[in-house]
Each structure stands twice: as structure tokens, then as C-alpha cells.
Amino acid sequence: MFPEFGRPVSDLLAELARLKAADLPVRGGRVTAYVYDTGRAEVHDAAHAAYAEMLEVNMLDPTAFPSMVALEKQVVGAVAELLGDPAAPGIFTSGGTESIMLAVKAARDSRAVERPQIVVPVTAHPAFHKAAHYLGVEVLPVPVDLETFKVSAEAVEAAISERTVLVVASSPSYPQGVIDPIEEIAARAAARGVFCHVDACVGGWLLPWLREAGASVPPFDLGVPGVTSISCDLHKFGYAPKGASVVLFKDAALRRKAYFASAAWPGYTIINSTVQSSRSAGPLAGAWGTMQSLGRDGYLDLGRATLEATRRLIDGIAKVPGLRVLGTPEASLIAIAGSPDVDVFVLADEARKLGWFLQPQLSYAGIPANIHITVTGVTLSGVDAMLQVIAQSAESARSRGPAQVPDGLPELIASLDLDALDDATFVDLAASVGINLRSTDQPEMSSVNAVLNALPAPTREAILIRFLSVIYS
């Protein structure tokens, strides 16, 4: 709580250490989502030092702090050089969601149609739905092939209408790590006079290094005719501290549509390149410091290690009874589906007991439930241990059997008006099916995920919102 008197730094750091005790580890490769680790302490130290140096610089006014303009030009320029057009204008943002939001805004404001619409594969990141929600745009989802998990260019084109302001393709999609047919989609969009955004938040700073390391990577960047914008997160495979991303545009005119300015007040001049106004230059400096510390040689070395670890994981998973890799991953994202006797949600719980976090993914649009692994530069050093944990956890899941969903529970939940329940009543409802939302202990999530998996997406969303409200209450 807020103290009456100030506390010494040592006391504060001790409390932070205590609060972090139950957190997942951010280093070492045992957490296969949310964090990205080079395995090189000196690189992270350089990023932290650069971040701290620019922590108090405010990016609200570029004329007040020219240092941040110089850094942003370097960082955006490096991304543009890697992604097919060294002259491409761009914006440094707080993350992939903000990059995507700016791309959607630029397309919307450029077309100026009534009831604007974006066409996205069902595997596209929810950031597009979030951007559409905030910006008053309709989302038209397009199914993907259930063997390759890629959207077809024909299906995307068929969805384009006079209201379409943007079509989207992923390189790769997060759920299965596959690359949509960018060249075909961009060509068909251009023929219809529609902008095309490539979501390369995951792959933008990874795929070029995998290609250089020997992987087969199809064209996906601004060098592809018809691609008009592309997003690339640096806090993923750029290994920068959160939050660091870049969105590039085909020209300065399109980038200007992402900007916001207001002179309709008597105060200081308002001109924003991002959704945020005041923001620290720390993340920008952290990204710059990471890139400078690693250099091309460092990123290529990490790319080689990532590629080898990915291939070894795919080969090893194929030997585990009851498991299969979905699709043919083209980056370093792997989705593993189970079988009737190996429940992937139970498998994830068993792996958590062994100190490993494997990310559960619910079924959707015909795609089965699975567990997701993001392979990073540090994974290779522990790939054999990870395969052993996966095999052991699969065997334990087989012995335990699948997570059970009480008869009638999904139907009951779907029939409830969740907005009419207060937080306390929602907590009691969860407790009635064995889920203690007030416990500080790490719960087994297999039953929770099994229940969510049995519900339609809108009900899942309503429950997740209530859950978030409870944990912050």
C-alpha cells in the first residue's frame, strides 16, 4: 500500500523479488511463450543499460528530445532494410497490437468508405479484432485450410467488397507458425485497389535470418508487389525489452494517415505518431541497444540455433505416441495436437509440474486444441530436456485421462447473463465447479481450459473479461 514515509531502495528491491517469486522465469527457455531469450546475458545487460539511460526521455515532442528521433530513424531504418525497402517510412510503437492498430487506421483513413471492413484469416492475431473494435471497422474472417492452416488467395479475394479497406496475411500466423501465400494475396488485393498488410510481428525479424541460415522462406515483405504495410516486433525475435515494434508503410502518404494531430484547444501542440501521447524512450533505446549489441552476425547465429532447435523438436515430437505437429511450421512456432488418449490441456499441466510452461491453445474454426511452443535462440541448449518433458508429460496425461467437463455445464454457462453477475457471484460460480479464483496457488488449468474449449467464442470472451476483473479486484 501507499507508505506514510519513503522507503529505501534496498527495501523496494527486496519486495519486488518477493512478489516475483511465483512468476514464470524469463530466462532459460523453460517458458515457451511470452518471453524471448538469446541466452546471452551481455546482450540483455546492454539493453537494460540503454533502456535506463533513456527512461525519462519523453517521446511526446520530437523537437524537445532530438536523441529519440535519431534513435528511431536508426531502428526503423534497420527494419526497413531487412524487410525489402530501405527507404520505407515507419513508426516505432509499443508492440504488435499498436503497430496493427496504426496500419488499420491508415488504411481506414485512406479509403474513407462508409462502414469500412477488413478481411482477415481466422488465424490472424486478435489484435486486428481489437483494432477494428476501437476504430469502428468490421472484421470479415476467412477460413483457412485445415491441413495447411493457410488462407487461400481465392478465399480472400472472394471476401473483398466495395467496403474493404484492408486485407491481411500472416508471416507467420501465430497459432501454427505457417506463412500465408503473401504474393498471391497481395496481387489480388492490388488488382482490386485494396491495401494489404502483412502481420510479421513474429516473423519480421526472424524469417530473414532463418532464410540466411538455410531455411526455405517465401517472399513476404515490402519487396512483394501489393504489400502496403508490414508490422515487425523487436521485442520478439529482435530480443529487445518490451515494448518494441515497428510498422512500415509503402510510402510517406500512407504513414501520415496513421498520425493524429489536434489544434482544437489552447494548449501545447498535439501531434502523435502512435496511439500513445507521452511515452518513455526507454523501450526505443532498449531495442537500439539490443540490435547494436548483437549485430548481423549475432542475429544470424541465433537464427541458425533457432532453426536447428525447431527441426529437432519437430522430429522429436513425431516420435511421441499420441502427439502430432499441426501443419508444416515455416518459422519457429510449433503447435502440437493430442489424441483421444492424450489430452493436451492435461499434458500442459503435467509439464508445468516439471517446471516447463507450454502454452495451451483452444480449438477454433475446425482447428483442434493444441499446445504452442515458441522456439527462441536459447532453446537449442535445452531441446533434449524439453523433448523429455513433453514425452513424460504425454505419458502422464495418458495415465490421467482427459480433463472432464461436467454434464450440462457449458450449456448452463452459455445461458447465463454474465454481465448481470457481480464479481463475488462470479467467484462463487467458479468455485461451484472446482475453480478457486481467490487462491494464490498455481491451479491446474486443464479443467478450466476444457470448459472454455466447450464454449462458443463469445462466451469464452465474456468469461475471460470477468476473470480479469476478478483478479484485479
UniProtKB/TrEMBL annotation:
Pfam families on file: Pyridoxal_deC
Cofactor: pyridoxal 5'-phosphate
Keywords, alphabetical: Aminotransferase, Lyase, Pyridoxal phosphate, Transferase
InterPro entries recorded: GrpII_AminoAcid_Decarb, PyrdxlP-dep_de-COase, PyrdxlP-dep_Trfase, PyrdxlP-dep_Trfase_major, PyrdxlP-dep_Trfase_small
GO biological process: carboxylic acid metabolic process
Keyword field contains Transferase: yes
Signal peptide: none
Modified positions (N6-(pyridoxal phosphate)lysine) in chain numbering: 236
Family recorded in the similarity comment: Belongs to the group II decarboxylase family. Sphingosine-1-phosphate lyase subfamily.
Protein name: Aspartate aminotransferase family protein
High-level lineage: Bacteria, Bacillati, Actinomycetota, Actinomycetes, Streptosporangiales
